[in-house]
């Protein structure tokens, strides 16, 4: 099984939606742009967000088992994927890459 590097590429916040719909939350996301993690199959990297892991883990597992070319040529590098967590107020975009 291949290892997968997970890199935080972008963190977005939708202040207007947060103000209108969200109850105040302290420390909702502990990620920072450029932060990297290494995943070993279904094993969630230490200190990785549980909710984000639920979103990206199927893609991590597929890449770890040699899968590639998601959605018929979506990525320039077929052994990668750009996936965002499912937080509608502050989505984080992750680049997943096979570690060769």
Explain what this protein looks like in three dimensions.
The protein has helices at 15-21, 50-64, and strands at residues 3-11, 36-40, 80-84, 92-99. A 4-stranded antiparallel beta sheet has the order 2-1-4-3, with helices on one face. The protein is 22% helix and 27% strand. Strand 3 and strand 4 (92-99) form a beta hairpin. The chain is of the alpha+beta class. It has one domain. It has 2 helices and 4 strands.
Write a brief structural summary.
By secondary structure, the chain is of the alpha+beta class. It is built from 2 helices and 4 strands; from the N terminus they run βαβαββ.
Sequence-ordered SSE layout with sheet pairings:
Layout: E1 3-11, H1 15-21, E2 36-40, H2 50-64, E3 80-84, E4 92-99
Antiparallel strand pairs: 1-2, 1-4, 3-4
How are the strands ordered across the major sheet? Answer: 2-1-4-3
Oligomeric state of this protein: single chain
Shape: elongated
User: How many domain modules?
Assistant: 1
Individual helix count: 2
Biggest β-sheet: count, sense, barrel?
Answer: 4 strands, antiparallel
Broad structural category: alpha+beta
- The end-to-end span amounts to 11 Å
Tell me the strand percentage band. Answer: 25-35%
What is the helix/strand order? EHEHEE
What is the typical, i.e. mean, pLDDT?
93
Q: Which spans of ≥5 residues are poorly predicted at pLDDT below 50?
A: none
């Amino acid at each position: 099984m291949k290892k997968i590097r997970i890199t935080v590429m972008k963190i977005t916040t939708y202040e207007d939606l947060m103000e209108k719909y969200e109850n105040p939350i302290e420390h909702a996301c502990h990620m920072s742009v450029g932060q990297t993690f290494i995943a070993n199959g279904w094993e969630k990297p230490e200190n990785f967000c549980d909710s984000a892991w639920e979103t990206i883990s199927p893609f991590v597992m597929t890449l770890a088992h040699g899968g590639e070319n998601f959605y018929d040529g979506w990525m320039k590098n077929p052994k990668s994927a750009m996936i965002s967590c499912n937080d509608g107020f502050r989505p984080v975009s992750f680049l997943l890459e096979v570690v060769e």
